[in-house]
Design a protein that fits this description.
Number of domains: 1
Radius of gyration: 19 Å
Keywords: Carbohydrate metabolism, Isomerase
Number of strands: 8
Number of helices: 11
CATH architecture: Alpha-Beta Barrel
Largest sheet: 8 strands, parallel, barrel
Organism: Paenibacillus agaridevorans
Enzyme class: isomerase
Structural class: alpha/beta
Strand content: 5-15%
CATH topology: TIM Barrel
GO cellular component, one term: cytosol
Catalytic activity: an N-acyl-D-glucosamine 6-phosphate = an N-acyl-D-mannosamine 6-phosphate
Amino acid sequence: MNAMIKSLRHGCIVSCQALEDEPLFGASHMAAMAVAAEQGGAVAIRCNSPADIAAIRQAVSLPLIGLYKRDYDNSDVYITPTMEEVKAVVEAGAHMVAIDATSQPRPDGRTIAEFIAEIKAVYPQVPIVADISTFEEGVHAMELAVDLISTTLSGYTPYSEQQSEPDLALVKRLADLNRTLVLAEGRIWTPDQCLECLRAGAYATVVGTAITRPREITKQFVHVIRGFGEHSQPTRKK
């Protein structure tokens, strides 16, 4: 087994990403976030865009799972969708590359099998993380000999299971095959949920929003407490 992949075992991978409309958008912010994650014990960083990857590579000593989100008018695939994005991710310094490995039509018209074959031919030393949304997609990615399967897109394709919790059932079904290591990713908000994912067979967990997106974290708190004063009476000291 690749020593870098071995180092991920039962660890917490932190996804350091921010959208353009978020206050923390920008390479310097994400590099600082990655440093904080490393200091907190993260085993790797998942990061998006050449600029962020390059900045984070300079800031931390952890393995980087790089991706490049780009929208194409003719496809719903946006996580490192073509070889152009793969090249940018690798040249920016990512140690591994994450790709959309769903069954959705790709912007360049290639099949996922053709895409993975080309990545392996051009970058044979770069491990591939296949982001999938269903069991069938995970099995297909395993057959294509990717290095890691991640449940990243479960609930984010129109045909996958829609739920508010981590997809433990998908993690378990894939892990029980004992073919390719599985990363649990998506809607993980608590340490207890990380443990549940590991118990389900995940090799490691990937946590993003719950750690690195303070605007969304704040929304969670506000959503829970909003309206409290309308339905409850304050407790008075006697």
